[in-house]
Amino acid sequence: MKKITLITTIVIGMLAQTFGEGISGKVSFEGKTPKMKKLKLEADPICVSNNAVPPTAEWLIVDESGGVKNMIVSVKEGLSGSHNPPSEKVVLDQQGCVYRPHVLAVMAGQNVDILNNDGIMHNIHALPTINREFNKAMPKFKKKITTQFENSEKPFKIKCDVHPWMIAYIGVFDHPFFAVTGDDGTYSISGLSPGEYVIEAWHEKLGTQTATVTVGDGSATADFTFKKPSKKK
Ligand SMILES: [Cu+2]
After folding, report:
1. How far is the CA of 60 from the centre of ligand 1 (A)?
2. Which helix (H) or strand (E) holds 49?
3. Quick check: is 5 in a domain?
4. pLDDT for 109-123, tens place per residue?
5. pLDDT interval class at 223 (50, 70, 90)
6. How much is the pLDDT for 228?
7. Fewer Cβ within 10 Å of end Cβ, the chain: N or C?
């Protein structure tokens, strides 16, 4: 029996070395989920016809298991060294007058392709406070612009000045240890050295929560539970 445990430990150890240590978990919502209303796209008939299914607001997407989509989970404290941005680009698409995805996370200096295949004009307006604000018209012939955000910054809003319902959020990090939760509210951050980290889960309406996580020989888990957003003061 002891032998099996030892072998198992060695195998897990080898796997951890191959894939790097990590933190994974799930972000859940407790309480009644507000219904996401249909977006009022009628002001622009092309926005309506470019959607097979009428799109809804996305400010709180919870699945049947309580998982919250579009949370940005990132390492806030405990990292050392500097990290270069990856060569892969991140895409923010304007599709049927909706930003896809609604929430994205990138590294400082990473290329972000902003696409417009809608055949109409969008005006992308980023509202950072640390990075440089930009406001760029994308007429229908302008199908792509590529930009970067030079500094790390907590998530900020991106909006379209033509279509007021179009909203996205982008978080910029000076390291690659972040993830955006999928439909089921789960996330996974890999490649961390053993140590103690503070991680933060951010949501556009639910706010933020932090957790202290120790990454040891194996991967660590950190789950978060958020409650109903507090009323605006
Ligand atoms: Cu637009």
Report:
1. 21
2. helix 45-49
3. no
4. 999 999 999 999 999
5. very high
6. 81
7. C
